[in-house]
Design a protein that fits this description.
By secondary structure, the protein is of the alpha/beta class. The protein has a single domain, classed as Aminopeptidase (3-Layer(aba) Sandwich), CATH 3.40.630.10. It contains 5 helices and 9 strands, in the order αααβββββαβαβββ. It has a 5-stranded mixed beta sheet, sandwiched between helices. Helix 1 crosses helix 4 and helix 2 packs across helix 4. It is globular, with a radius of gyration of 17 Å. It starts with a helix and ends in a 9-residue tail after the last strand.
């Protein structure tokens, strides 16, 4: 993952400030927080070989949010099994704007065989303007943006007009059992007006320059 792309993701995160004063004045602090959370997530092995899989990552992100002052009752680590732990965090609004907005990312990653890598795939690394490590883009960048933005908004005293929900799933790369389980057993946690998926778009680059951010509205599920 190129650092320039990361900066564009940061700009998108700052844009979610929804009217906060002078977000550029806090850009350095926001970038430091985002980089720190991204590094922490990449350093946690959430591939099948990781054993506990997403439990450590979900717990670490919950700790970040409650440490920023979010009530523990609004930050849940929950799932069908510990290995498929998800994070559901609700940033409460004043209720005047309607039903919640759900923002999603996933904590799990596909397997990485050490013999296929020239360094530890589960150790965050920055070199020559690039970030390396399994999940550095897919999708721990998205998860880091969502968590860091909740922390930033909380620190700045922002009150949205509706609840904002961050959902970090446990098994997007495989069978999505964690999401199906939540929808069956705790549908109220994900009830929303609409959802935004941080894994459904990408930065378009031409000759090393960012020319746009592509937004994906649908995905083909099956094809011959």
């Amino acid at each position: 993952m190129r650092a320039r792309t990361f900066a564009i993701i940061l700009a998108f995160a700052l844009a979610l400030g929804l009217g906060l004063d002078s977000p550029s004045a806090r850009a350095d602090e926001a970038e430091d927080l985002l980089r720190d959370i991204h590094r922490e997530l990449v350093n946690i092995n959430t591939a099948p070989s990781g054993g506990a899989t997403t439990l450590e990552a979900a717990t670490a992100m919950a700790r970040r949010l409650t440490g920023a002052g979010m009530p523990e009752s609004d930050v849940l680590v929950i799932g069908p099994t510990p290995e498929k732990s998800t994070l559901v965090a609700r940033y409460r609004g004043d209720g005047t704007g309607g039903r919640p907005i759900l923002m999603m990312a996933h904590l799990d990653v596909v397997e990485a065989l050490p013999e296929d890598w020239s360094f530890d795939p589960f150790a965050h690394r920055e070199e020559d303007g690039y970030f390396y490590g399994r999940g550095s883009i897919d999708n721990k960048a998205g998860a880091a943006v969502l968590v860091s933005n909740f922390i930033r908004l909380r620190n700045e005293g922002f009150e949205p007009s509706r609840d904002l929900i961050v959902y970090l799933s446990a098994d997007e790369e495989t069978d999505a059992v964690s999401t199906l389980w939540l929808l069956e057993h705790h549908p109220d946690l994900l009830e929303a007006e609409y959802a935004l998926n941080s894994d459904a778009g990408y930065v378009q680059m031409v000759a090393g320059q960012a020319t746009g951010f592509m937004v994906q509205a649908a995905e083909k599920m099956y094809g011959d």
